[in-house]
Amino acid sequence: MSKIQISNLTYKYSDGVAALDEVNLTLDHGSKTALVGPNGAGKTSLLMSISGLIQTQGDIKIDGVSISKESLSDLRKDMSFVFQNPDEMLFMPTVLEDVCFGLDTLGLSEAQAKTRAREALEQVSLGGFDERSAHHLSYGERRGVCLATSIARRSALTIFDEPTRELDPFGRRNFINLFLQMAGTLILATHDLELVLETCEQMILIDGGSVIQQGDPKTILMDQELMEQHRLEVPHSLTRHPHSH
Q1: 1-78+155-164+183-238 maps to CATH 3.40.50.300
Q2: 63-114: per-residue pLDDT in tens?
Q3: pTM assigned to the model
Q4: Which residue, 122, 186, 193, 211, has fewest beta-carbon neighbours within 10 Å?
Protein backbone atom coordinates (compact mmCIF):
# COMPACT_ATOMS: atom_id res chain seq x y z
CA MET A 1 0.00 0.00 0.00
CA SER A 2 1.44 3.34 -0.99
CA LYS A 3 1.62 6.49 1.05
CA ILE A 4 2.51 9.50 -1.07
CA GLN A 5 4.15 12.67 0.24
CA ILE A 6 4.60 15.57 -2.16
CA SER A 7 6.72 18.58 -1.18
CA ASN A 8 7.15 21.85 -3.10
CA LEU A 9 6.39 20.18 -6.40
CA THR A 10 6.90 22.53 -9.34
CA TYR A 11 6.75 21.77 -13.04
CA LYS A 12 7.18 24.31 -15.81
CA TYR A 13 6.36 23.87 -19.48
CA SER A 14 9.14 24.65 -21.95
CA ASP A 15 7.73 28.19 -22.37
CA GLY A 16 8.21 28.85 -18.65
CA VAL A 17 4.52 28.65 -17.69
CA ALA A 18 4.07 26.73 -14.43
CA ALA A 19 1.82 23.69 -14.81
CA LEU A 20 2.38 22.90 -11.12
CA ASP A 21 3.32 25.53 -8.59
CA GLU A 22 4.67 24.53 -5.15
CA VAL A 23 2.24 21.66 -4.60
CA ASN A 24 2.27 20.04 -1.13
CA LEU A 25 0.10 16.98 -0.49
CA THR A 26 -0.07 13.79 1.52
CA LEU A 27 -2.15 10.83 0.40
CA ASP A 28 -2.61 7.97 2.84
CA HIS A 29 -2.22 4.23 2.28
CA GLY A 30 -5.24 2.72 0.65
CA SER A 31 -7.00 6.04 0.11
CA LYS A 32 -9.25 6.73 -2.88
CA THR A 33 -8.60 10.30 -4.02
CA ALA A 34 -10.18 12.36 -6.79
CA LEU A 35 -8.28 15.14 -8.50
CA VAL A 36 -10.69 17.78 -9.76
CA GLY A 37 -10.24 21.10 -11.54
CA PRO A 38 -11.01 22.94 -14.77
CA ASN A 39 -9.15 22.19 -18.02
CA GLY A 40 -5.49 23.15 -17.79
CA ALA A 41 -5.54 23.10 -13.97
CA GLY A 42 -2.53 20.76 -13.74
CA LYS A 43 -4.31 17.47 -13.05
CA THR A 44 -2.53 15.39 -15.69
CA SER A 45 0.84 16.99 -14.85
CA LEU A 46 0.36 16.00 -11.20
CA LEU A 47 -0.55 12.42 -12.14
CA MET A 48 2.44 12.19 -14.47
CA SER A 49 4.76 13.56 -11.78
CA ILE A 50 3.63 10.91 -9.28
CA SER A 51 4.24 8.26 -11.96
CA GLY A 52 7.70 9.63 -12.68
CA LEU A 53 6.75 10.31 -16.30
CA ILE A 54 7.91 13.95 -16.22
CA GLN A 55 10.88 15.61 -14.55
CA THR A 56 9.88 18.05 -11.84
CA GLN A 57 11.38 20.20 -9.12
CA GLY A 58 10.53 19.35 -5.53
CA ASP A 59 10.17 15.95 -3.93
CA ILE A 60 7.73 13.06 -4.27
CA LYS A 61 8.09 10.21 -1.80
CA ILE A 62 6.28 6.91 -2.18
CA ASP A 63 6.45 4.93 1.07
CA GLY A 64 9.38 7.10 2.12
CA VAL A 65 11.38 6.60 -1.08
CA SER A 66 11.94 9.70 -3.22
CA ILE A 67 11.25 9.32 -6.94
CA SER A 68 14.58 9.58 -8.74
CA LYS A 69 16.31 8.06 -11.76
CA GLU A 70 17.77 5.42 -9.43
CA SER A 71 14.55 4.47 -7.60
CA LEU A 72 12.03 4.76 -10.41
CA SER A 73 12.22 1.30 -11.96
CA ASP A 74 11.70 -0.32 -8.53
CA LEU A 75 8.85 2.04 -7.61
CA ARG A 76 7.17 1.46 -10.98
CA LYS A 77 6.85 -2.27 -10.27
CA ASP A 78 4.12 -1.46 -7.79
CA MET A 79 2.42 1.28 -9.77
CA SER A 80 -0.05 1.42 -12.69
CA PHE A 81 -1.08 4.40 -14.78
CA VAL A 82 -4.24 4.19 -16.90
CA PHE A 83 -3.95 6.88 -19.57
CA GLN A 84 -6.84 8.95 -20.86
CA ASN A 85 -6.12 7.80 -24.42
CA PRO A 86 -6.11 3.98 -24.62
CA ASP A 87 -4.01 4.04 -27.79
CA GLU A 88 -1.03 5.21 -25.75
CA MET A 89 -1.15 1.90 -23.85
CA LEU A 90 -2.09 -0.73 -26.41
CA PHE A 91 0.56 -1.79 -28.92
CA MET A 92 0.79 -5.60 -28.86
CA PRO A 93 -0.66 -7.86 -31.59
CA THR A 94 -3.39 -9.29 -29.32
CA VAL A 95 -5.46 -8.17 -26.35
CA LEU A 96 -4.04 -10.93 -24.14
CA GLU A 97 -0.46 -9.86 -24.95
CA ASP A 98 -1.36 -6.26 -24.13
CA VAL A 99 -2.68 -7.27 -20.70
CA CYS A 100 0.28 -9.60 -20.06
CA PHE A 101 2.80 -6.94 -21.05
CA GLY A 102 5.12 -6.13 -18.13
CA LEU A 103 3.76 -8.85 -15.83
CA ASP A 104 7.08 -10.70 -16.17
CA THR A 105 8.73 -7.80 -14.30
CA LEU A 106 6.55 -8.79 -11.32
CA GLY A 107 8.16 -12.22 -11.30
CA LEU A 108 5.22 -14.07 -12.85
CA SER A 109 5.77 -16.99 -15.21
CA GLU A 110 4.17 -16.83 -18.65
CA ALA A 111 1.40 -19.21 -17.54
CA GLN A 112 0.71 -17.21 -14.37
CA ALA A 113 0.67 -13.97 -16.36
CA LYS A 114 -1.86 -15.38 -18.85
CA THR A 115 -4.11 -16.67 -16.07
CA ARG A 116 -4.04 -13.31 -14.33
CA ALA A 117 -4.63 -11.45 -17.60
CA ARG A 118 -7.65 -13.63 -18.48
CA GLU A 119 -9.14 -13.08 -15.00
CA ALA A 120 -8.72 -9.33 -15.43
CA LEU A 121 -10.38 -9.41 -18.89
CA GLU A 122 -13.34 -11.32 -17.38
CA GLN A 123 -13.69 -8.58 -14.76
CA VAL A 124 -14.00 -5.88 -17.41
CA SER A 125 -16.55 -7.96 -19.41
CA LEU A 126 -14.00 -8.78 -22.14
CA GLY A 127 -13.66 -12.52 -21.54
CA GLY A 128 -12.96 -14.30 -24.83
CA PHE A 129 -11.26 -11.25 -26.39
CA ASP A 130 -7.78 -12.79 -25.87
CA GLU A 131 -6.79 -13.22 -29.51
CA ARG A 132 -8.41 -10.09 -30.89
CA SER A 133 -6.41 -7.01 -31.80
CA ALA A 134 -7.08 -3.97 -29.67
CA HIS A 135 -7.11 -1.81 -32.80
CA HIS A 136 -10.28 -3.54 -33.99
CA LEU A 137 -12.15 -2.86 -30.75
CA SER A 138 -14.47 0.03 -29.94
CA TYR A 139 -13.19 2.94 -27.86
CA GLY A 140 -15.00 1.66 -24.76
CA GLU A 141 -13.57 -1.84 -25.26
CA ARG A 142 -10.06 -0.43 -25.64
CA ARG A 143 -10.57 1.47 -22.38
CA GLY A 144 -11.62 -1.86 -20.85
CA VAL A 145 -8.39 -3.53 -22.00
CA CYS A 146 -6.38 -0.71 -20.38
CA LEU A 147 -8.31 -1.19 -17.15
CA ALA A 148 -7.66 -4.95 -17.30
CA THR A 149 -3.95 -4.19 -17.71
CA SER A 150 -3.92 -2.28 -14.43
CA ILE A 151 -6.14 -4.82 -12.62
CA ALA A 152 -3.79 -7.64 -13.65
CA ARG A 153 -0.82 -5.83 -12.13
CA ARG A 154 -2.51 -5.61 -8.68
CA SER A 155 -0.44 -2.54 -7.97
CA ALA A 156 -0.17 -0.84 -4.60
CA LEU A 157 -0.79 2.45 -6.44
CA THR A 158 -3.09 2.88 -9.44
CA ILE A 159 -3.59 6.20 -11.21
CA PHE A 160 -6.42 6.97 -13.67
CA ASP A 161 -6.64 9.95 -15.99
CA GLU A 162 -10.30 10.70 -16.93
CA PRO A 163 -11.32 7.01 -16.62
CA THR A 164 -15.00 7.47 -17.58
CA ARG A 165 -14.52 9.93 -20.45
CA GLU A 166 -16.63 8.90 -23.46
CA LEU A 167 -17.85 5.70 -21.79
CA ASP A 168 -21.52 4.80 -22.14
CA PRO A 169 -23.59 4.42 -18.93
CA PHE A 170 -22.92 0.67 -18.77
CA GLY A 171 -19.17 1.14 -19.18
CA ARG A 172 -19.16 3.88 -16.56
CA ARG A 173 -21.12 1.77 -14.06
CA ASN A 174 -18.76 -1.14 -14.73
CA PHE A 175 -15.77 1.10 -14.04
CA ILE A 176 -17.30 2.35 -10.77
CA ASN A 177 -17.92 -1.21 -9.54
CA LEU A 178 -14.38 -2.29 -10.40
CA PHE A 179 -12.83 0.83 -8.88
CA LEU A 180 -14.67 0.27 -5.59
CA GLN A 181 -13.35 -3.31 -5.44
CA MET A 182 -9.74 -2.42 -6.19
CA ALA A 183 -7.20 -2.57 -3.38
CA GLY A 184 -4.28 -0.22 -2.83
CA THR A 185 -3.98 3.54 -3.13
CA LEU A 186 -6.14 4.88 -5.97
CA ILE A 187 -6.01 8.32 -7.58
CA LEU A 188 -8.29 9.49 -10.37
CA ALA A 189 -8.46 12.77 -12.26
CA THR A 190 -11.90 13.48 -13.61
CA HIS A 191 -14.51 16.02 -14.74
CA ASP A 192 -17.24 13.57 -13.70
CA LEU A 193 -18.21 15.00 -10.31
CA GLU A 194 -20.95 12.43 -9.64
CA LEU A 195 -18.25 9.78 -10.07
CA VAL A 196 -16.20 11.54 -7.38
CA LEU A 197 -19.13 11.46 -4.94
CA GLU A 198 -19.69 7.76 -5.59
CA THR A 199 -16.14 6.50 -5.43
CA CYS A 200 -13.73 8.71 -3.47
CA GLU A 201 -13.39 9.55 0.19
CA GLN A 202 -11.22 12.56 -0.47
CA MET A 203 -10.91 15.15 -3.15
CA ILE A 204 -8.21 17.59 -4.18
CA LEU A 205 -9.34 20.73 -5.99
CA ILE A 206 -6.53 22.00 -8.18
CA ASP A 207 -6.46 25.13 -10.34
CA GLY A 208 -3.66 27.11 -11.93
CA GLY A 209 -1.21 24.42 -10.84
CA SER A 210 -1.96 24.95 -7.14
CA VAL A 211 -3.93 22.95 -4.61
CA ILE A 212 -6.97 25.06 -3.67
CA GLN A 213 -8.58 22.63 -1.24
CA GLN A 214 -8.27 19.06 -0.03
CA GLY A 215 -10.90 17.20 1.96
CA ASP A 216 -14.30 15.54 1.93
CA PRO A 217 -15.71 15.57 -1.65
CA LYS A 218 -19.27 16.40 -0.63
CA THR A 219 -18.23 19.34 1.53
CA ILE A 220 -16.06 20.83 -1.21
CA LEU A 221 -18.48 20.16 -4.07
CA MET A 222 -21.43 21.70 -2.21
CA ASP A 223 -19.61 25.04 -1.96
CA GLN A 224 -21.23 26.81 -4.89
CA GLU A 225 -19.08 29.93 -4.66
CA LEU A 226 -15.89 27.86 -4.64
CA MET A 227 -17.10 25.75 -7.58
CA GLU A 228 -17.94 28.80 -9.69
CA GLN A 229 -14.62 30.47 -8.86
CA HIS A 230 -12.87 27.48 -10.41
CA ARG A 231 -15.17 27.02 -13.44
CA LEU A 232 -16.95 24.00 -11.98
CA GLU A 233 -20.56 23.29 -10.99
CA VAL A 234 -22.18 21.78 -7.91
CA PRO A 235 -23.16 18.22 -8.97
CA HIS A 236 -26.91 17.72 -9.61
CA SER A 237 -27.26 15.08 -6.92
CA LEU A 238 -26.27 17.69 -4.32
CA THR A 239 -28.62 20.42 -5.56
CA ARG A 240 -31.80 18.37 -5.78
CA HIS A 241 -32.36 17.82 -2.07
CA PRO A 242 -30.81 20.75 -0.23
CA HIS A 243 -32.50 19.85 3.07
CA SER A 244 -32.04 16.09 3.16
CA HIS A 245 -28.98 14.46 4.71
Answers
A1: yes
A2: 999 999 999 999 999 999 999 899 989 999 999 999 999 898 899 999 999 9
A3: 0.91
A4: 122
